[in-house]
Amino acid sequence: MNSSLLALFLDKYPDVWLRFMEHMNMTTMAVLLSIAIGVPLGILITRNKTASNIVIGIANLMQSIPCIALLAFSVPFVGIGEKPAIIMVIIYALLPIIKNTYTGIISIDPKLKEAAEGIGLSSWQKLIKVEMPLAMPFIMAGIRISTVAAVGTMTIAAFAGAGGLGWFINMGLIGLNINMVLLGAIPASILALLIDYMLAKAENLLVPEGLKPVGQIKNDKLEKHTFQKVVVAGLCALLMIMPLGVKGYAYIKDATQKTIVVGTSNFTEVFILGYMYENLIEHYTDFKVERRFNLNGADFCFSALTNGDIDTFVEYSGTALMNFCKLPMNSNSEVVYNQVSETLLNKHNVVTSKPLGFNNTYVLSVRPDFAKEHNLEKMSDLLAISNDVILGCTAEFLHREDCLPGLEAKFGTKFKDVRALDATIRYQAVTNGEVDVIDAFSTDALLKKMNLQGLPDDMGFFPPFYAVSFTRGELLEQHPELKDVFSKLDGQISDKEMRNMNYAVDVEGRDAHEVAHEFLVQKGLLPK
């Protein structure tokens, strides 16, 4: 462990412990439910060959679906948070459990089953006394495989606002901070090894001594064997009870406290703004804020807002115009704001705040040496040579009407090649020369960190992307005092101030909550 990683761990230890417990609770709940479903199902399909082919085929099919797709599919039905994450992991964990249970039982020598029937055992007795003990090594192998895989898969839960160790991994990817990635990955690995070790001990006690390989048989005294069983059973019971206890405590606590749920999508800027609203709400009202940060994109957030899963979130006027209102793009900032606020209020009873001040619009960005070589100073210069340029962009830029499709339709732009890249990876790609130009936002800290040159939009193509907050109208109707609180950020943040805050988090490694609080104090919105 290098010194910077150790320093980061010591700085964020309380948060690491919180995320570790969240991760363990969700994983344990998902695996327990998988066992409760998978083992009985694996037993049942041993009775019918056709049923086994169908059930295992469906389990195979479900596991072939990308986990992020399963997560997104679950959200409209069960909302955001832990529920869709647990459902996703259950689906992924079922196949090894079902298949190993089925394989373990059908692999038993038929003569042993006949002998069990010959001494008068019923089907139930034969299952409990003969089949399950003989199949236990297979069943436990399936459970262990599923559990270790579940710990890793559960990192995706962060994209549904469920927290867990995936939060650090995502933050590290956003800021190209390998230490932050390791802050999530290392505890996740430790958790996987810890749970697997406990399951190995449980397997050792559950498998009868006579069924173990000769080298593993121990002639322990009955008292010692009984003590080991009690210890392992106690630890396993603790793992089972802990998620229920945590949820029960949270439910009781929430029932006695007024709560506002603040959501954000999945990048640094909105994390900072989300923390700002949290600070303001908790300082000026008696509400407690529940965070649902790191949701998977703007549409995800808006769906959560209209479904009542969150109460407020920050997005951009241009995005709202196209994605939420389904209206054609427009470059006039005042027209865009009026269209967005009126449409969302009338159709969804969503209240739009005044702009927070800064305009985080798209800016096509290149390496300085590439700009010098091709005499690029503005966007029109780039479009003139687009046939010889490789574009690396996000999937959103690739498909949105106000992005690449609009450039192609309005100006006949045709890039030499277009590569869809993750939001963070595209910065590495342009820096390494794998692509020539990327889509970026004017307040991105990585533009400064990677020393990239933004090309101003001299053609007036990109719509305005002024940051605004969207809040459920029902909340403001029930608590009108919140209107003054939400309005405190209106017009308060300039482009430069937002860019500097992003830089403090993504490049300098400062805590987003600390940066947000410091800004509010500087603006006189919070006491020192």
UniProtKB/TrEMBL annotation:
Keyword Protein biosynthesis set for record: no
Entry keyword set: Membrane, Transmembrane, Transmembrane helix, Transport
Gene Ontology MF term list: transmembrane transporter activity
CDD domains in the record: PBP2_Opu_like_1 (cd13609), TM_PBP2 (cd06261)
Chain ranges passing through the membrane: 26-46, 58-79, 85-102, 134-161, 167-195, 230-252
PROSITE patterns: ABC_TM1
Protein name, per record: Osmoprotectant-binding protein
Segments forming domain ABC transmembrane type-1: 20-199
Protein origin, superkingdom: Bacteria
Record has Repeat as a keyword: no
Subcellular compartments: Cell membrane; Membrane
Membrane-topology descriptor: Multi-pass membrane protein
Gene assigned in the entry: opuCC
